[in-house]
Amino acid sequence: MDSILVRKGTPHSNATTAALVSFVVASIILCPYVLANYSLDAILHPANLFFVLSGLIQPALVRILFYTAIVRLGVSRAGPIRGISPLFALAIAFFLLQERPALVVYFGAVLTVLGTWFVSYRRAGEAKWKTLDLLFPLGAAMLAAVSQNIRKMGLLIVGEPVIAATVSTVTSLLLFVVSIAVSRNKNAVQINRKCLPYYGGAALIAVCAQVTTFTALDSVPLSVASPLLNTTPLFIIAFTALFLRDVEKITRLVVVGVALLVAGIALIAGR
After folding, report:
1. Percent of the residues in the chain that have a pLDDT greater than 90, as a whole number
2. How distant, in Å, are the alpha carbons of 186, 207, 244 from that of 24?
3. Distances from the Cα of 25 to the Cαs of 5, 35, 137, 181, 237, in angstroms?
4. CA distance 97 to 219
5. How far apart are CA 61 and CA 55, in angstroms?
6. 130, burial (CB in 10 Å: exposed 0-12, middle 13-18, buried 19+)
7. Beta-carbon neighbour count of residue 198 at 10 Å?
8. What is the pTM of this model?
9. At 271, is the pLDDT very low, low, confident or very high (cuts 50, 70, 90)?
10. What pLDDT, on the 0 to 100 scale, is given for residue 41?
11. Is the peptide bond before 80 cis (omega within 30 degrees of 0)?
């Protein structure tokens, strides 16, 4: 749903502003909660460095790439392509974490990936976009897979999803602020009254998603969590049809792609 809100706010601002608002809101919510409910030893545990490293990648780079993809490609295309992340995550987990899921899990992941290609074609009447623009959601997917493996390694040691989400978010915020300051681009951030309701709402949804993502990674193997965490295309297509029908067109091939995604998810969940 945050993707829909970011798309709604785009005419009034840009992807950089959306990402900054998201990081700031998440930090304001998570930091006081963690300070009030966890000991200093838990917050400063050495294993939390895994989440610092993760924060340098996700949500920082991943969210910026994804929001840029939404602006350039539209929600109904960027979302499903971003969903290719499970394939990268499974490959990395196989070698890095020595996870050996059943064959059906890999088959389910392939189906979810296959479904994304049915939405990656040019549709009649849509705004023009360049093939190179596909690198934004693909880059987001690959970096997300790397980040998820790093997060899983940290959670195997400390098992504190809320602290993990907070450390990653604050790291992303600091990195983002520094990068803007170094770039000296005065137009990078464009905060105004028209975009804030959309970007603020997207940020609240994103922080909930961030915490639940870490909780899922802490609860089950990455090879199972990653494909299920990347089922967002299902909801993106549905919400796009409901709220963006005047901006983006949902065709039969898109519906076929969603069906493949559902089949892949069913195989993974019922392993």
Report:
1. 23
2. 19, 10, 27
3. 15, 16, 23, 19, 26
4. 15
5. 9
6. exposed
7. 22
8. 0.77
9. low
10. 92
11. no
